[in-house]
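Async update (no meeting this week)

Hi team, since we skipped the sync, here's where things stand on the single-chain job. The sequence we agreed to prioritize is pasted below, unchanged from the tracker. I ran it this morning and attached the output directly underneath so nobody has to dig for it. Comments welcome in thread, and please keep replies under the output.
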Amino acid sequence: MPDYGLYEVQEELITKRGELEEDIMTGPSAPILEHKPKGAGSAGGFGNKSSKNRPLLKTQAKEHAKVLRSQGVVRIDNVLSPAVVDKVKQFVMELRGTAQREIADQKVAVKQRFANVLLRKNRCDLTMPLTDTIYEALYESLCASSVGATIQNILGKNAVLYELSCLISDQGSDRQVVHPDTPFQDGEEPVLYTCFIALQDIDMSMGPTVWLPETHTLEIHNMFKDETAPGPNEESPKDKLLRTRPFVLGTLPKGACAIYDSRLLHCGTANRGDISRALFYFSFKNPKLGFPGNPPSIRPELQDKLTLKTLQSQLESFHKSQRQNS
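Output:
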């Protein structure tokens, strides 16, 4: 065996398992489709900046929340405007370069700029500061679209901002293994809801996220944890689950958002294209629960500091001042 460190050995084993799972997963698959609430008007987000549109957003959110509870994932389009997407993408790529230089010059520790990520070769999780660009993106997401109201519908206004980051999968990044972000805790209470927003159109070559709908249950988690084959040449309950379960693909258009339950089985796939895939994301934690079982991807100074209510209030004030100064 090559003289690898422990981490490199683990990465190699995970990569091989991810490749095996790609072959195993032959169940029905399709791109995740935009959820268009019936009778709730347009599902678009960034155009709804007037307060008179808030009742419409709440109506849309109730329908999105129903899908999220039952399926574990829902897609909402037009959450960020094209102009804001482009600003965030440029900001993220410049921030990544700055962070890499700061780390190389030993000005900051890695954990102050990057969070841990499964299979970090050609993949990173870059935590976000609360700059004007990020405020603008959060305003469009949490105030001007139905995303914020959808989170509130399930977790309430005191949901805690748990993560604020950007996942970047470069060319050559390998397929992850299927996993939940958090384990199934006692009871049926959801733990976290994560919002992935595409900073560019995502096609199949770029390694879209794979989600397995309706796998955010205790029964499924117990099957998923059972890797014991009952006999020679027989598959484990976990492999049978992966082989037969339908899944959806995160081939999202630019500015679209996929919200998913942290207990839902999913994985990032291999980026075999020529373009990096960037997902701006944030998550909110159930305020009734303690540690969810997975450390947060967020700047230390922001951890456990903001609820959905307080963040939305800050965002409204920011947006008002921006309009007054324009």
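Quick observations from my side:
Residues 82-104 form the longest helix (23 residues).
The chain has one domain: 20-325.
Reply here if anything looks off.
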